[in-house]
Amino acid sequence: MAAASSGFGRVQRETIAAVEAGGLPANQFTAAVLLFELEHSSNPITALERVHAALAPGAALLVVTPSLDSVAARDLRSHWEELRPENRHYFDSQTIQSALLRTGFGDVEWSQDRVLASDMVVTAIRRDPLPRPRLSIIMPVYNERATFERTVEAVLAKDLPGIDKEIVIVESGSTDGTRDIVRQVQGRPGIVIVFEDRPRGKGHAVRSGFAKASGSIVLIQDADDEYDVEDYDALLEPIVTFKRAFVLGSRHMGSWKMRKFHDQPFMSAFFNGGHIIFRTLLNVMYRQNLDDPFTMYKVFRRDCLHNLAFECNRFDFDYELVIKLLRKGYVPLEVPVNYRSRSFSEGKKVSTLRDPWTWIRALVKYRFASIWVEEERRRN
Length: 380
Prior knowledge:
α10 packs parallel to α12 and α11 (about 315-330) runs parallel beside α12. The strands form 2 sheets. The protein has a 7-stranded mixed beta sheet, sandwiched between helices. Strands 1-2-4-3 form a 4-stranded mixed beta sheet. The radius of gyration is 23 Å and the shape is globular. The chain is built from 13 helices and 11 strands. By secondary structure, the protein is of the alpha/beta class. Helix content is about 35%, strand content about 20%. The chain folds into 2 domains: about 1-125, Vaccinia Virus protein VP39 (Rossmann fold); about 135-380, Spore Coat Polysaccharide Biosynthesis Protein SpsA, Chain A (Alpha-Beta Complex).
């Protein structure tokens, strides 16, 4: 009882079976540790519910369990040392997060070295009651005079039963009058505006939006009216029901011809072919089978970003974000969405000469470079 004598309060040790049986007093403990216990449980959800009930509001939970995301699990497979008869359950980052969220815990985080070892160390905070979901919609804006007002009004009008929302608009110094239109919506309920002093790229704008987001769920929404806000319901359903933590809105499930520039057919074919090439590269390099990893509609729980370092400023940020979430252990669910691609004559901003090289760089660099904030700080 050294912990108790050191001022940590009541200390009690129980088997996971006793925890599931509900023998713990309610609201009595300031912390709980499940050290290689959850995988032995007959019902992990029941065990976590019992732990939640025993903890005081705001108390901390620490879980250590074998990780299906680990290099050892992926490479050794049936020879993985953690495959033991006494283990009834195994978890990856998505399933452990879903289990914790479903049972009333929040602020789910894990140690950055979990991929290098066979085990993951997960921390969470006991929440009571479960907070109402809040969606932060990040909207980067640059020279979108023709479509910004229509897009933001559609997002404001979109009803999301049971979910609060905020729109974080990041205006990056437009030269076509868009900035003045953005000022007109400043101060409206549910809108947060960030005015950047100059354009640094879509990726930089999205990262600025992340810093201002207050919601538990994040969705990226361009201001170019290419996507349909009526798809929000399908995109959010897997997240609010704790089925997945990361969702992609796939633009072309069922047809490879994603982009159709009626006034520029050659460019349409060029970009559709390029999409197949880059999608294949990502799938091969990161062991995935994604149809549209580069879609704008990326939706995820905000705590997925914890401890991840981001640096890309242009459209290569789409690659960086997806790759780093994949490397952290999040495999996205792809949901089909409506999409009408605009051509370059309508304002498309991707550079056919500059941007593909940044995409190649991102694919290669983030396959091997650290994804963690602490290691970036040490290098700098």
